[in-house]
Amino acid sequence: MSTPTVIESGPWAGWKTWPQDTFETGTGPFYSRAEPGRGVVCAFIAEPRHMNGGGFMHGGCLLTFADYACFAIAEEYTVGGAVTVNLSGDFLSAVSAGARMEATGEVTRAGGRLIYIRGMITADGKPALSFTSVVTKVNRDRAG
Amino acid sequence: MSTPTVIESGPWAGWKTWPQDTFETGTGPFYSRAEPGRGVVCAFIAEPRHMNGGGFMHGGCLLTFADYACFAIAEEYTVGGAVTVNLSGDFLSAVSAGARMEATGEVTRAGGRLIYIRGMITADGKPALSFTSVVTKVNRDRAG
Amino acid sequence: MSTPTVIESGPWAGWKTWPQDTFETGTGPFYSRAEPGRGVVCAFIAEPRHMNGGGFMHGGCLLTFADYACFAIAEEYTVGGAVTVNLSGDFLSAVSAGARMEATGEVTRAGGRLIYIRGMITADGKPALSFTSVVTKVNRDRAG
Amino acid sequence: MSTPTVIESGPWAGWKTWPQDTFETGTGPFYSRAEPGRGVVCAFIAEPRHMNGGGFMHGGCLLTFADYACFAIAEEYTVGGAVTVNLSGDFLSAVSAGARMEATGEVTRAGGRLIYIRGMITADGKPALSFTSVVTKVNRDRAG
Questions:
Q1: 8 Å CB contact between D84 and D133
Q2: Element of type H or E holding C45
Q3: What is the predicted ipTM?
Q4: Cis before residue A29, ω within 30 degrees of 0?
């Protein structure tokens, strides 16, 4: 989408984020970096503001992080911009405030226009959301 | 999940919301009411804070509204509480700030534990997200 | 895909099928026609050969019929050929041999390349599978 | 589902199948076995009868194999029987007759009633279908 910024200091020093993305910045911010043997790792800390009425992380928060993660994982394939075609999530376990959230995944196919991603969000290492997504490079199918 | 509140004045007078849901209140708030011939209608106004880096509504915002809508649509079947098992969204068109967002849908099956919902989010009447979801009544499969 | 054939006699007279599709012909055949007020209607009769080890229709049979139905429903938008990008099905109820299976649905968006469909399969009128699909026009993203 | 049979001779000697599943036997048969380091591996050979009108494997055939694979992968968790709640597939590449089809995957969560699976189908080693599924133990939510 837009240009990522690398955090220079603090607990997320060395991680990237997309500050121009207003919704992501407001929901997260979410951070990502490449780690040896794990590929792109996305992360944030679960806070009370991410919780639903039952006291657990809202499904929409998990799906927002998943959508973010898909673009972070597929960043090299979507340089000119891309938009989500489909996103599907299977909710595996409840997440409480304070948990360290991480998302990892892989590009399962990078076609000329369509990019397929699948991944997993964990909370303190425990699987929380299994997700799959298809995105398409922009100014193609979803404009207007 | 928790108890809905009916708005008493202002532009959303007569609509319900779930103020105890911190994430929804922060992302929306989202509102719902039953309308003759349409069933449960959910709504909010798209604002700049809902947009992604490209200037269109973030996929996570649409999915959060979809997740909310599923519980509003299925409210009568989930009195004791329920959690999302699966949510899948197909992104049909880009949404800009200022649009009136609405979600409607139907319960396609209400089983003993599993409730199935499908619906559509529109932006100023134009289809934006087609969604399906399965939710399960709580203290069953997803606890802990 | 290929050219449909209109059945000339027997119980399916007036319905179309795609005889060049070996897998569909072997699994079905499946039939479709436009009906006033319902759009494209797809149909076949459930037989013992469609059942799983538990005596109910196999999920794969329902999904095969759904995949067929998506192309029948979207036929006017996929004249030059198209392939499935994503298909998702929610299983609503068990189906027994002898049931009349029908599928109906709608194109929720027809973009330049991507076509989105959602629909419902019923068995003797009872909802059995809710499905959504994205297909892409061919010789584009999924070739080889 | 039902009791698997171990093949005693021929090219699939040592592999299991479910001969009581009429639809699977007619579409496949499909075979499975545990392999060191890979978990449960499912396999069959693509034949002309599995192809669509365009000469490539029908999406319904891939989804049928995926549905089969989910039960093979989750066999230890579904001893008393289970039925599919949701199955979603992303189609990654076209498959031609003659290819050796394999499916592998993992149980991402085994709850009291709901079992979550994700996996990948390959054709001669090339990713063809990425799938996710939720199944529920039987005589619970989807009976009649």
A1: yes
A2: strand C39-45
A3: 0.94
A4: yes
